[in-house]
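User: I'm new to structure prediction. If I give you an amino acid sequence, what do you actually give back? Let's try with this one:
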Amino acid sequence: MAGNNFDFSPNSYLEKLYQNNQPEFKFVAETKAEWKLWREKLKLKIAELIGGLPGKNAVSSNTGQGVGNLSVETGAVEILAEKSFKDYKRLRIVYQVKDYLKIPAYLLIPASKEKKTQKKFPAVIIAHGHGNGSRETVGLNGAGDNLDSPTCHNNLALDFVRKGYLVIIPELLGFGDRRLKEDYQKDPDLKANPTANSCYRISSHLLLSGESILKYRLWDLISALRVLEKRKDILNRQISVVGFSGGAPVAILAALFENKIKAAAISGYTSYYKESILVQRHCLDNYLPGILNYAELPTMISAIAPKPLLIQAAENDSLFPLQSAQKAYQEIKKVYRFLNLEEQLKMNILEKAEHSVSAAPIIDFFKSLN
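Assistant: Good question. You get back a string of structure tokens that encode the predicted 3D arrangement of the chain. For your 370 residues, that looks like this:
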């Protein structure tokens, strides 16, 4: 374009395309019946866009009974490694999901002084963001050694278990041990690049098949929920979900589609697509084909209502700007206000922080619900 008076850039066209778009499911309900219909239709459309919901996959467990819409096979969750600390136990486990893959995960169990009776704990499922995978949330690097210093995940899972939560962190598809074989073999311990992943190639393959990686990462979270459901040390079925950054859209879907998840916290993601993943290059796993024809991101998140929801945003987040997060929060709040459930929705701002997550405000929020 230099040296002439012509502008060949597509900027103005893309801006017009966005501005002229009228999402089908913008919230305009005036009655509870209309809200319920709006929510169900939006969920059906989202399910269609990701490529369908898991309905027949099964997690190997120690029972032959079915759970919800998942038939659970006879088998066992295998323990790959176990280490005890002063205030918790850390297990590396793996379980097979029928017609899918084996999923490795970390399971953190608080230490209990009670010997005669089994202690019960509230539970949380953590959907990690980009980085080395589930290890990063428990303070480990790609080789399984202690991190020199916390990353943007801030040892999230450790804070939860030390506050009395049983925690499961499934390794999401494309990260850590679940990278493509050729990617894993090049750098199994993530020494050359601590944040290397296979997101782009897996997403590309699935998009050409009419599916989204979000569908399979949703399977990852729901299968983790099924593992928790089979345990006898969960307090009153109190199972919440936390999603940070790239794990946030998966947590949003899990909260939307899984009734047994009681509350959710979304950190480092809430915004408008127009002001986040459309402003700069992001990982391909953030993009859901066709979604803007039906809903912007705040509309999707607002469908989590009536479940309790915490929105967490960092003051200096350059990926998902605070101003966009605050504006999105106000949009989400409209639905909670409509349902007379404003007290079920909160926002937490991490002052002076860059793109990161903090467990303490989330723990306080979850505990306030009990």
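You can read the tokens as a compact description of the fold. Here is one thing that stands out. The longest strand covers residues 234-244.
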